[in-house]
């Protein structure tokens, strides 16, 4: 039996549809507040951010992976909004992550209530993004932790650049979306000046690009039993890593590969500004629902490419995508755990994180709207957090 709250939200999505656009500033503030609420209400009560709020079971335990890459977003907005509360929250997240780092420098996969505790390349790479931001801002133990994580990633990388270290949370084999791990190494190289980190990251990104098909699609882009129809979430992970590789190296081959995939994604954008949740190898919709996380991530990539190429269609597509996700939000319901949260799927009954509002979707919407504002030279309002 589906609980009433889940039924009500499904009805809202299917019958009432999109809401009025609250605008970027209100959406960013609401999402930041939701992340703070998710930290406060984490079922593991450890300083990390709850993986999700479920309309069926409530707040989940903290998720190290996504807490890691939420940290740069909070630190950035703490500066932009002169908001000590955000900086303090990020500090608690950073200190918690250091406390759970494994002796070899790796980090566990999945959430803190998972029965399986194992070192995972992808999760370590995402946490490395947070450690690099913390090291850049504060140095000290965060720099040490950053080096340990980066060195572990290099120690388990294959000579061709891929990572094939066992991951109990994904199917065995090659995964091109680990370019998002490579980005973590690029950031660690920027912060520390250690060239080997950047070289290792670029080796992975170039390996991934070598697997790109003529139409811009990637085999081995799925997270599980979905290799023939990966989520836009994992497609965008792959694309973002390649774009970051281009910005780090200036290699035009990486920009060309990113453009090829980004242009294919443009052809799948609906008139409302959405993308199908999964796409097949011909860039055709494979499911009727939308992965809101992947939509925001793709908007970020389009905005980056607008900056890099000046092509107006990228900016237009990103504006449409950002507006679409903002129009799915609950705004102004301060006493509700739905306020400022972003659903895994639209409708919320879709297969990706069904009936859940997930912390990484909030993070990517904040980043997408922030980058759009930067391009348009729009400053955030004074913080009300």
From TrEMBL:
It comes from the Bacteria. InterPro entries: 6-hairpin_glycosidase_sf (IPR008928), SQ_cyclase_C (IPR032696). Residues 83-220 form the Squalene cyclase C-terminal domain. Pfam families: SQHop_cyclase_C (PF13243). SUPFAM superfamilies: Six-hairpin glycosidases. This is Squalene cyclase C-terminal domain-containing protein. It comes from Prosthecobacter algae. The lineage of its organism: Bacteria, Pseudomonadati, Verrucomicrobiota, Verrucomicrobiia, Verrucomicrobiales.
């Amino acid at each position: 039996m589906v609980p009433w709250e889940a039924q009500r939200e499904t009805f809202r999505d299917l019958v009432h549809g999109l809401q009025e656009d609250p605008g970027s500033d209100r959406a960013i503030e609401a999402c930041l507040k939701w992340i703070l609420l998710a930290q406060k209400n984490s079922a593991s009560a450890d300083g990390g951010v709850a993986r999700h709020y479920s309309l069926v079971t409530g707040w989940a335990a903290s998720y190290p992976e996504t807490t890691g890459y939420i940290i740069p977003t909070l630190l950035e907005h703490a500066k932009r909004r002169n908001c000590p509360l955000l900086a303090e929250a990020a500090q608690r997240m950073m200190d918690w992550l250091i406390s759970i780092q494994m002796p070899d420098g790796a980090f566990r996969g999945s959430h803190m209530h998972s029965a399986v505790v194992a070192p995972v390349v992808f999760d370590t790479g995402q946490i490395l993004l947070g450690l690099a931001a913390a090291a850049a801002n504060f140095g000290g133990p965060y720099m040490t932790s950053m080096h340990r994580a980066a060195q572990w990633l290099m120690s388990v990388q294959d000579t061709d650049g891929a990572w094939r270290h066992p991951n109990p949370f994904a199917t065995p084999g090659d995964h091109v979306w680990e370019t998002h791990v490579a980005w973590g190494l690029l950031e660690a190289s920027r912060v520390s000046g250690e060239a080997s980190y950047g070289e290792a990251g670029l080796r992975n990104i170039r390996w991934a690009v070598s697997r790109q098909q003529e139409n811009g699609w990637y085999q081995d882009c799925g997270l599980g039993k979905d290799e023939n129809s990966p989520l836009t979430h994992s497609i965008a992970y792959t694309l973002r890593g390649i774009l970051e590789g281009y910005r780090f190296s200036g290699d035009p081959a990486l920009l060309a590969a990113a453009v090829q995939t980004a242009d294919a994604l443009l052809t799948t954008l609906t008139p409302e500004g959405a993308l199908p949740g999964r796409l097949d190898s011909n860039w055709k919709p494979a499911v009727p629902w939308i992965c809101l996380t992947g939509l925001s991530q793709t908007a970020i990539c389009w905005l980056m490419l607008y900056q890099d190429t000046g092509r107006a269609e990228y900016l237009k597509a990103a504006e449409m995508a950002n507006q679409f996700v903002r129009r799915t939000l609950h705004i102004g319901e301060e006493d509700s755990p739905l306020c400022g949260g972003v659903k895994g799927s639209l409708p919320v009954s879709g297969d990706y994180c069904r009936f859940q509002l997930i912390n990484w979707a909030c993070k990517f919407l904040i980043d997408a709207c922030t980058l759009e504002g930067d391009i348009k030279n729009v400053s955030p309002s004074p913080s009300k957090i």
